[in-house]
Each structure stands twice: as C-alpha cells, then as structure tokens.
Design goal:
- The protein is of the alpha+beta class and 420 residues long.
- It contains 13 helices and 23 strands.
- It is 31% helix and 29% strand.
- It starts with a strand and ends in a 10-residue tail after the last strand.
- The relative contact order is 0.14.
- The chain binds adenosine monophosphate and glycine (GLY).
C-alpha cells in the first residue's frame, strides 16, 4: 500500500516511523517532511492546505491512504476532498474538525450532549464581555473562538488581565479567530490528554499522555507548543478514563453522528481531573505534538492497522495492544524559543545515538544541508525513549540528549516530574 502523510513536524516523523514498521506499507511519502523523515520516507513539496492539489498528487503517485497530521488542513476541508476522490483518508471532515477549530461549536456540542465542561458565555462584542468578566471575577479564562496556533487562550488570574485579553481579541490581534470570544469558568485540577480513534461510530482509546506546556523547569515561564510529554498519564486512571468515555467522549461522538457529520480520525480530549472526575477543557482533532511521539513509540507497527480501520469504519471489535510500559519525550528547542531564535545552527552527534523500538529521535524542525543537520524551527528535536518504568524511559531519553551536540539548543531537564 502507498501512503501519504501530510505534515512535517515531530508528530509526522513519529507517524511515519510507526507506519514504516508495518509490512503493509510499500511506499511512504510525507509532505513536506523534514530531515529526519527524509531518512525513512520520500519527502514531497506539496501545498497541504490545498485539497485539490493533494488529490492530484495522490492520484499521480498511486497513493492508497492519506493520513493528515496537523489541524489546519483538516479545518480547511482537505480530508473531505481526499474522501470525495474515493481515497481512504485518516482525519475528520471540515465540519467535524470544528471541534478544534471553534471553541463555541464545541461548547454547543457539550451542551447538547451533556458532557461536563466549564461554564461559559459567548460574545461578539466587547462591552457585554467586559461586563461579564466584572460580574464573574477572576480567575477566569478568555478564549478566541477560532484557531490561533495555541495562542488564543488566556488564563487570567486577575480581572485586569482578563480585560486586557478581551481588548486584544476584540481589537483583532487574532484576526478572524477572535471575532467571537468564549469566556469560561476557571477549572482547577490536573490536566491530562486522552487519545481516541473514532470511525464515526465506534470509539477506541489508544492511550493517555501528559505534556509540559511551559518553557521553564517546574512548569514555569511562557507557554509553548509543548516541551515534553509522557505516556501513560498516571492521573488518568482506568476508572476516570472509563467515566470520561461514558460522560464526555461517547456522547460527543454520538452527537456529531446525530447531526449527520460523524467524526472520523483521532479525538484528543484535553481533560481537567479533580476528585476522581474529568471535565473537558478542549478537543483537538489530530494527534498532539509531542504527545504523538510517545504514543507511536508505544504502539509501533499496529498504528497503521488501527488508522486504516478507523478510516474504513472498521474499528468495532478492535483493541490496541499495549505493552505494559512507559514512553517519554524531551523536546530540544532553539535558544530563545518561544520568543525569537536563530535558524540554521548545526546539530551534531545524532548518528551515534541508538535507534530502535526503545530509542528514537524524532525530528520536528530540521533540514539537511550539505550533509549536515541544521535547525529550522523553534521546537527542533523530540528525543524519545521507552522503558518498563517512567524513570527508565526518562533516564534513556536524557542519556540520548546528553549525546547531542547542539550548543544553540536547550531542553527542560525535568520532563515527567509530575508523574515521578
Ligand atoms: P486550550 O487551547 O483550550 O487547550 O487552552 C490552553 C490551556 O489553557 C489548557 O491546556 C489549560 O491549561 C488552560 N485552560 C483552558 N481552559 C481552561 C479552563 N476553563 N480552566 C483552567 N484552565 C484552562
Ligand atoms: N502538545 C499540545 C498540542 O499538540 O496541542
């Protein structure tokens, strides 16, 4: 089978790595890919936001199965275009992708199906929003409705911060994404992520994870796309996960099916856990990055069979086969990230690292130049390891980090601390 993966980050390297382990995979193409992906797959130059271009490329290259990595092409309807051309595609329709692309949509779905989530109100005008903030007081959470590359949420600890966030959003700092604002009750608890494959009807849990969003050790400093992650998430016990399935995920999937827009793909439920109960923080409609890296290292080759079953509506009766183990990934980022950073610095030492089903360095922002690997992004490498305990996975990951020679990069040294 010929497979096309859309995307070029650490998430897509991990997907490509897992897919490639499976003997069903004949030819693997990733668009645009990166230097790490180029070592295991063909990289193609393709506008992944353009559904028609993706279909033409897939047809020209006899692609049988398209896997969409990031949210932006899903929100742009690329999966719809691929399916309309008669090709198997992993990833939700544009309508179902609103679970990530519109906070107000998700809130309305939760209302309709009774899924527990933060109390909220929606606003399209500044003055009533300000009044609401003053009534509710802080802490309070202000969210731009649309996709804002992870920057559209302000957890305001004071009323002044909340009012400032409203000013930013209504003055157009987030463009269209901020034309509508959702104001939410602040939820206390511990966050964890629950990953589920859905084929429109059947829901199959494929793992839990926790990430570290803040740039600094001890979870301090500005927010980032994620500085590391581990799986499983101990806080999401089997009992809490089962309850979250019954109260949040299955009702959501049933509600989308009822609306005639079934969800097909991976549902990434961000949960807030407190007193043995989970409430929904948000949905994403794609794998987390870097959470995907730890999930793929644990799932291995079966990932392709599961994604295919998902795309074909054949998840009923399937189970994910888990080794009883742990995986952890450390993100290496360019100095300065999440602020401004230098590009083009050289990374050495990667060739001497172990590369097997227990150790993988997934590339996020890299390119190959004259036989050298250089950094091209903020988050650059995902140093990932598996072990029988989380401590073992952590020790293996940091041993690899120590073998990487990249003076212009940094990482957090405490990934996994909450669970250890
Ligand atoms: P989101 O983009 O919705 O994931 O929000 C980003 C982060 O903001 C989440 O991962 C939480 O840490 C935090 N957050 C969002 N909504 C809430 C809420 N209602 N209460 C507390 N924290 C929240
Ligand atoms: N690591 C958080 C995300 O992928 O949204």
């Amino acid at each position: 089978m010929n497979i096309l993966i859309l995307g070029g980050g650490g998430r897509e390297h991990a997907l490509a790595w897992a897919v490639k382990q499976n003997p069903k995979c004949d030819r693997l193409i990733v668009a645009p890919g990166n230097a790490g992906i180029a070592a295991i797959a063909e990289c193609a130059d393709l506008d992944i936001m353009d559904g028609a271009a993706v279909v033409t490329f897939a047809e020209e290259n006899a692609v049988d199965f398209v896997i969409v990595g990031p949210e932006a092409p899903l929100a742009a309807g690329v999966a719809d275009a691929v399916r309309a051309a008669g090709l198997a595609c992993f990833g939700p329709s544009q309508e179902a992708a609103k679970l990530e692309a519109s906070k107000a949509f998700t809130k309305a779905v939760c209302d309709a199906c009774g899924a527990p989530t933060a109390a909220y109100a929606r606003f399209t005008e500044a003055e009533p929003a300000r009044r609401y903030v003053r009534e509710q007081g802080a802490p309070i959470v202000i969210k731009a409705d649309g996709l804002a590359a992870g920057k559209g949420v302000v957890v305001a600890m004071t009323e002044a911060e909340a009012l400032e966030a409203l000013d930013d959003m209504f003055s157009g700092a987030f463009g269209e994404a901020g034309a509508e604002v959702v104001i939410e009750e602040f939820m206390e608890g511990e966050e964890a992520s629950f990953f589920l494959l859905c084929d429109g009807e059947t829901v199959l849990p494929i793992g839990t994870a926790q990430d570290h969003k803040r740039v600094g050790e001890g979870d301090t400093g500005p927010n980032t796309g994620g500085m590391g992650a581990y799986s499983p998430a101990p806080v999401l016990t089997d009992a809490i996960a089962e309850r979250a399935l019954d109260e949040i995920v299955r009702p959501t999937v049933a509600e989308l099916a009822r609306r005639g827009t079934p969800f097909q793909g991976v549902l990434y439920a961000g949960l807030m856990i407190r007193d043995g109960q989970a409430r929904l923080v948000e949905y994403n409609v794609r794998f987390g990055d870097p959470e995907c890296q730890v999930l793929m290292l644990r799932l291995g080759a079966q990932a392709l069979d599961l994604l295919l079953a998902c795309a074909r509506g054949e998840l009923a009766g399937r189970k994910a086969q888990w080794a009883d183990d742990h995986a952890l990934t450390v993100v290496m980022a360019a100095d300065g990230y999440p602020g401004s950073y230098e590009k083009g610095t050289e990374i050495k030492g990667l060739d001497d690292l172990p590369e097997d089903s227990f150790h993988m360095v997934f590339h996020a922002g890299t390119a190959a130049r004259d036989g050298r690997i250089v950094a091209t992004g903020g988050r650059v490498l995902n140093v990932t390891a598996r072990g029988t305990t989380l401590a073992e996975a952590q020790a293996r990951a940091y041993a690899m980090v120590d073998g990487i020679d990249w003076p212009q990069g940094f990482c957090r040294r405490d990934i996994g601390w909450r669970a250890l």
